[in-house]
Hints:
The longest helix has 19 residues, at 69-87. This protein is an alpha+beta fold and 194 residues long. Helix content is 20%, strand content 38%. It has helices at residues 3-8, 69-87, 154-167; strands at residues 18-19, 25-29, 32-37, 40-45, 50-55, 58-63, 90-97, 102-106, 109-113, 120-122, 128-136, 143-151, 177-180. The protein folds into 2 domains: 7-87, Ribosomal protein L6 (Outer Surface Protein A, domain 3, Alpha-Beta Complex), CATH 3.90.930; 90-180, Ribosomal protein L6 (Outer Surface Protein A, domain 3). The termini are far apart.
Amino acid sequence: MSTTAQTAKESRIGKQQVAIPSGVKVTINDGVIDVAGPKGRLTAPLPKGITATEDDGKIRLRAESGDDRARHGLARALLANAVKGVTEGFTIELDIVGVGYKAELRGSRLVLALGYSHPVEFVPPPGVEIKIERKQKPGLNQYQTTLIVSGIDKQAVGQACANLHSLRRPDAYKGKGVRYAGQPMKLKPGKSAK
């Protein structure tokens, strides 16, 4: 098989090797890769048509045919996320902006006051931890309540943040609501009196 035919069936992301840091143990099984590290244990799926080999502290994924190219990059990304998750973990910050908007932890539950007539309760999924801090943010006049969502599973952390964000999306005029920290927001001008 020629080199161009070999590279044509491999994804640009998928052909990059995943380095295994020290302290991380990787086991390649049939259809799944187990990754264990200092922060915990995760599994990365190995789709049909993708094979994995470990050599000199690195894992290389190969696509058996051109039809497996799309899953090749996905499998490599999921494996890299699992390795990063068990070594460093993932963290996303959310800001709660608005007068009277606040959050508090009651046990494992998060209770939010978001301008509704009732408090909103949020139970984080297993493996996801939420902390509350008050931080001074640039561009905002007062201290903001910041939710720090962290965990080893990138998908679970991202989904928990998306669920929190959907509880009160930022309004277009004043930006009140649950925002992703650091994400710029363009506010609409309000109606001005003539």
